[in-house]
Amino acid sequence: MTFVSQTQSAGKSSMAFLLDLLVLLGQLLKIFVETIISWIIPADYKSVAGEVCLITGAGNGMGRLMALNFAQRKAKLVLWDMDAEANKETGALVEQMGGTAFVDVCDVSDKEEIKKAAKRAREAVGDITILVNNAGIVYAKEVLELSEKQIEQTFKVNTLAHFWIVREFLPHMLKTNHGHIVTLASTVGLFASPGMPDYCSSKHAVVGFHQSLYYDLQNFKNNNIKTTLVCPYHVKTGMFRGVTVTHPWLVPSLTPTECVDSIMHAILTNRPFVAMPRLMYLVYNAATWLPMEAQTLCYRFLGADTAIRKFKPNRPYQLEDS
Ligand SMILES: NC(=O)C1=CN([C@@H]2O[C@H](COP(=O)(O)OP(=O)(O)OC[C@H]3O[C@@H](n4cnc5c(N)ncnc54)[C@H](OP(=O)(O)O)[C@@H]3O)[C@@H](O)[C@H]2O)C=CC1
Ligand SMILES: CC1=C(/C=C/C(C)=C/C=C/C(C)=C/C=O)C(C)(C)CCC1
Question: What's the pLDDT at 8?
Fold first, then answer.
């Protein structure tokens, strides 16, 4: 008797499995078709007018360029950087464009400073609805050359700050079911490059943080909080001054403007993930199946093994510590 009912229920569950599988295949097909259509006919850009957008590391490089892009689109800005002068300059540029910016000094490696700055931002402009976690640092040293303080600082800025800042602003996004969280990671958060073990591992960690957050948000009913994970290859901002591969024409570095244009496109079309240039999707994929020995040969051929040795410190924290 028990045997019969077990077979019956096994039959039922395999039917249910087949049905679920069919539904899944249908949904996957729909997503593939929609994705291909979105490559051919890109989605309309969403409006960010009136949104309150916090950008960390807004004083230089891509942070500044993103601030100007958001200002042009009439978002209200909150700009954080520990470089007070550079951040003020970004604020002035935003205002010259007719935008508004609440400029504040915040060292994101300090959890308590983040809490205080978040309170000041809420009081001055209101709750953050677009969060761009952009501040990042690199020392470009091998594991034995790095000091303990440098290793800790890399993780505080590139990884832990993302936890503390998201924990400040996600509750309001959840309450209103509205918001967008952008994480500036890196291609070296997807596949490693030599000569920067602290940087690569901090970026791998932040990719994991972001992706886990993404899946958690999918579990909320009717979730409308968007996320965008950004993984650029080398960008000529000054952070990685001098870094180059053997045949730069084969894998050219990005200009800050072309990188930020791609980031803005991804944010404004609610894309969850963007790596640039496009070749990086292929490299990322190959890193999952090419034997490590083969990858080493490719690294040598392309000069990925020595690219970081040409690095010239440029940023204040790099000069202080070099
Ligand atoms: N440039 C590249 O090749 C790539 C960069 N990225 C990532 O993109 C992001 C932006 O990089 P990019 O624009 O090139 O970098 P930049 O060095 O040009 O700008 C980063 C800004 O963050 C600030 N900053 C550093 N530490 C802190 C801190 N503790 N608290 C607050 N602000 C801080 C810097 O201030 P200060 O000048 O005083 O140091 C600087 O103003 C980073 O997360 C980086 O890792 C990803 C892939 C490639
Ligand atoms: C590893 C690797 C490459 C080079 C990577 C380099 C040099 C990356 C530098 C990235 C930076 C500076 C990221 C900042 O966040 C290639 C040639 C693309 C392909 C083979 C694998």
Answer: 65
Direct distance between the N- and C-terminal alpha carbons of the chain, in angstroms, rounded to an integer: 78
Look up the CATH number of the domain holding residue 177.
3.40.50.720
The edge-to-edge listing of strands for the beta sheet with 179-184 is: 101-105, 76-81, 52-56, 130-133, 179-184, 225-232, 273-276
Q: Is residue 73 part of a domain?
A: yes
Q: What is the pTM of this model?
A: 0.94
Asked if pLDDT for residue 2 goes beyond 80, the answer is: no
Strand partners for 251? none
CA-nearest residue for atom 23, ligand 1, is 57
| Residue percentage of the chain with pLDDT more than 90 | 92
pLDDT digits (tens, 9 = 90+) for 77-95: 999 999 999 999 999 999 9
Q: Whose CA is nearest to atom 15 of ligand 2?
A: 186
Q: Is the dihedral of CA 233, 200, 206, 284 positive or negative?
A: positive
- Closest ligand 1 atom, CA of 59? 41
Calculate how far, in angstroms, residue 105's C-alpha sits from the geometric centre of ligand 2. Answer: 31
Question: Among 56, 130, 55, 67, which residue's Cα sits nearest to residue 93?
Answer: 67
Pairwise pLDDT comparison (118 vs 3), residue with the higher score: 118
125 SS3 class: helix
Structure confidence by residue, pLDDT tens digits, 123-140: 999 999 999 999 999 999
Q: In this structure, is residue 5 part of a structural domain?
A: no
Instruction: Give the chain's domain count.
Output: 1
- Which one, of 75, 50, 54, lies nearest residue 63 by Cα? 54
**Residues linked to residue 76 through DSSP beta bridges, in sequence order:** 52
302 CB near ligand 2 (under 6 Å): yes
Selection from 312, 309, 253 nearest residue 279 by Cα: 253
Domain interval for residue 95: 50-320
